[in-house]
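Late entry, evening session. Most of the bench is empty. Finally got around to the prediction I had been postponing all week. Sequence below, unchanged from the version circulated by S.P.
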Amino acid sequence: MEQFTYFMPTKLFFGAGALDKLGTEPLPGKKALIVISAGTSMRKYGYLDRVQSLLEKNGADYEVFDKILANPVKSHVMEGAALAKETGCDFVVGLGGGSSIDSAKAIAVMAANGGDYWDYINGGSGKNQPLQARPLPIVAITTTAGTGTEADPWSVITKEETGEKIGFGSDMTYPVFSVIDPDLMESVPPHLTAYQGFDALFHSTEGYIANNVTPVSDMFALKAIELVGEYLPRAVKDGTDKEARAMVALANTLSGFVECMSGCTSEHSLEHALSGFHPEVPHGAGLIAISLPYYKMFADHNACPDRFIAMAKALGKTGAAAPDDFVAALSALQTACGVDDIKLSAYGVQKDEARKIAMHALDTMGGLFEKDRYKMSLEEIASIMEDAYK
């Protein structure tokens, strides 16, 4: 067995009612910048009020930054960091989905470091400079089950001018602690529940077929795949199904562990390139659109047949005997969740962009292609995007 390292320093509070821990757990500072989306849900459902009250109960003051987009952008990172500096915030709370928590991590970086966020990005036009100072401490409170960002160091931000959507993270951008309270997820509508659940699924499927897996990442990945396959259709059908919400939330957190240890393959690079150019494409929807031709490419080339069969069995296809069985099981799950007919054309994507998106993926997050067990040509990468188009 090869050597491996397991490092996931975030303290996790998981389960119904876990949000109350924010009122008693020692905080990493005295004044928080609470980062939320530009939408209405955090206020509409009272989540922001509860977080503010719990922070006050725990002796902390706060400011609110509420401009984060579904695909978060660099300008808002810089604006949020400036607000944190101006108002004396000494830690950051990401409240909401992956976009808010990812932004909180990036804001924590720039509240403590000079220059531009892209100075520290590795890929595309990033300058790959080392951080000058430790980021502000981060607390993550997730209200969705999709990115696993509460349990990993990664943050994905788009540079608007160039459409570069690139991940960044280090040992210093793990949350100090995270709250995963499935009760906060009951308000997520069915289509977003599905998009987010498939994002969690693909973090685990990619992390299971990557070429740098470990026994620990395999364990977490297969369990997450199993939980998504069994419980995501139930959560989509009935958002108040507490057991389904909790199990999908657990799958999501496990997928964050997978990202810490093995990580994503080129499927995520392709989607980042797609939604970098077309930020109106929800990340999960983009992944779903790409997924069947993507996994078929690897199955057809027999990249890691035993792993594909294991994933098929985890999704419930007990008699799986060939890599294509996973593709079939994935297709069936998409149908069960009502997301089998996503049309990229509905978001303004054109079929003749396939090669441009493929090249953008290689230019911005080409490192993820190095984790693939089958090395695709540019033409093969472009063909996935062509096949994904509807």
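Two things to note before I forget:
The radius of gyration is 20 Å.
The chain has 13 helices and eight strands.
Will write this up properly tomorrow.
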